[in-house]
Predict the 3D structure of the following.
Amino acid sequence: MSSSAPVQRDMALVDLLDRLLAGGVVIHGDITLAVADVDLVYLSLRAVLASVESLGCPTSTR
Amino acid sequence: MPYVYAVTEAAAPIPAPPRYALARGDLAAVVADHDAPEPTAEALLAHEAVVEELMEDGPLLPMRFGSVSADVVALLAERGDELRAALERVRGAIELGVRMGAPDRPAASGTEYLMRRVAVERVHEPLAELARAAVPGTRAPHVGAYLVARADVGRFRTRVAELGDDLVCTGPWPPYSFAG
């Protein structure tokens, strides 16, 4: 398992992004982050994670 | 406008400052007096750390990141039945995610797409049987999200390993996929 830990951690981060930005209770009408903004955040953070993964940074597993 | 982290039970322990609870009947919202943070990786992880800490105190429904509300008490009143039922559903359980180790990119061909779908379904169904609730993944490397009783987490992880050594189980997460 230890050799795949960096990949596992990055997968966990991607999973976390999916949950934080697309899951959870939504307050209709009051939310400040517009859907379009969320999509942009999502794409930019995913790009960061993808580059981390390709570098194979040593990271702890979740 | 308070930033809202989660909906909990009014009976839950008082959250650590600067967070505080706004109660309405048997429900409460855990809030803090700050604006929605810029959605950086650090802010997302800080939000998650708060929610995970709260999760140790009892059942909770995490809010979507970036939620602020001028009148969260009204939300608790208007959607009380729905929120109460969701809290009962997640009581004593956590969320686990399961992904295939396949690259997170669109299928390169129709054949690859179908092979992925079949592989995902083969894994999702037996895992759903071990979960209190399950949501299939919307994109191929995501097999699904599973609401699993804390006592069953070990059994669930063992089953994931049995079903394929290319599978990755992430979590435990607050029940983001089962809050609505």
In short: The interface with chain A takes residues 1, 4, 6-7, 35-36, 39, 41, 44-45, 47-48, 61-70, 72, 75, 83, 95, 97, 99, 101, 104, 142, 145, 168, 170-171, 173-174, 176-177, 179-180 of chain B (CB under 8 Å). Residues 121 and 143 of chain B are 8 Å apart (CA to CA). The first helix of chain B runs from residue 41 to 55.
